[in-house]
Amino acid sequence: xxxxxNSASPSGPPGSASNLESKQADPVDWEARYRVGDTPxxxxxxxxxxxxxxxxxxxxxxxxxxxxGTGHDVRAIAMLGGRVLGLDLSETALRMARSAPHVAEESxxxxxxxxxxxxxxxxxxxxxxxxxxCAIPPSRRRDYLQAITRVLKPNGYYFGVFYINPxxxxxxxxxxTREEISSLFDPGFELLEEWTPDEAFEGREGRELCQLxxxxxxxxxxxxx
Length: 225
Prior knowledge:
Elements: H1 30-35, H2 48-56, E1 62-66, H3 72-78, E2 83-88, H4 91-99, E3 106-110, E4 124-129, H5 132-135, H6 141-151, E5 152-163, H7 178-185, E6 189-195, E7 208-215
Parallel strand pairs: 1-2, 1-4, 2-3, 4-5
Antiparallel strand pairs: 5-7, 6-7
């Protein structure tokens, strides 16, 4: 579910269930949005900030891309040698991803990030965040962190393109702040680099924050938070 500057506001587009944010369910029906082609967030190519990063830092090992949508970011990573798994709630989005020209070691799974198989614990060398964090209800961000903490290997890497200041006031996409990101990720994930990307989709210039983090061997338990 790659989200751009356009809102999935409940006031109009199909697939939006309610104005109420719920910890139990996402108010946006992403499968319905993909079925009717109401996907203005899909620009048809990978996030510019990600492709710029990959040009200098190709990712190796096993890589998870949550909320992968139709797979643009997955293919950009796979082209440089990573074994990439794209994860999304929408079977229609994944059908489109699988029907695109295949690039090296890419695969896709339909699953809920908050209910991943126990066998995935400690599986991945990288998690790549582009728009999953801003698409989910903000009340679930600590659950998001718990999920990626579980699937990353000790010393695994987390690359994130965070949406700081969306133009859609109600979201999604939902904005965040550097302070909120720090409150969630510190101290379990060491901040290695942080920057405002020079390249972005039209309308997102100056609205994003990139971070590269590394998971520690001993991360805090989020179950007590």
